[in-house]
Amino acid sequence: MITLYKAIDYFFYIIEVLIFIRIIFSFLRIGPYHPIGRVIYELTEPILHPARELIYKLGIDTGMFDFSPVLAIFALRLISSILKSIII
After folding, report:
1. Which of 33, 16, 29, 30 is CA-nearest to residue 69?
2. Is 70 exposed, middle or buried (0-12, 13-18, 19+ CB in 10 A)?
3. Can you tell me the distance from the alpha carbon of 46 to that of 1, in angstroms, rounded to the nearest whole number?
4. Distance of CA 39 to CAs 6, 31, 36, 61, Å?
5. Sign of the alpha-carbon torsion through 65, 31, 29, 19
6. Helices of type H across the chain
7. pLDDT confidence of 4, banded at 50, 70, 90?
8. What value, to the nearest 5°, has the Cα angle with vertex 43 and ends 41 and 45?
9. Which pLDDT tens digit goes with each residue over 21-54?
10. Which sign, positive or negative, has the C-alpha torsion 40, 41, 46, 48?
């Protein structure tokens, strides 16, 4: 059980790090057409797209800022804590 707990923890940690890297890439103007940017984009887009859609459906106007990473990380931490509480 401890190894499953750690595996879940590492999995969600890696996803969060990839989201932070994508945020940094957006500031550095490294887009999805760059080879490294493409990998990061493909790994994080399945998580960020639903968050972006939720913000859009709620009618929240964020202007030029994209708050989907914040929402996605919040959701990931919530899912992680739920899964870990089920395991223990």
Report:
1. 16
2. middle
3. 28
4. 25, 11, 5, 29
5. positive
6. 2-27, 35-57, 68-87
7. confident
8. 60
9. 999 999 999 888 999 999 999 999 999 999 999 9
10. positive
CA proximity to 77, closest of 23, 1, 7, 16: 16
Structure tokens at 73: 């990380």
Instruction: Tell me the residue type at 10.
Output: Y
Amino acid letter for position 6: K
- Sequence letter at residue 50: P
Instruction: Give CA separation, 52 vs 6, 8, 57, 61, in Å.
Output: 29, 24, 9, 11
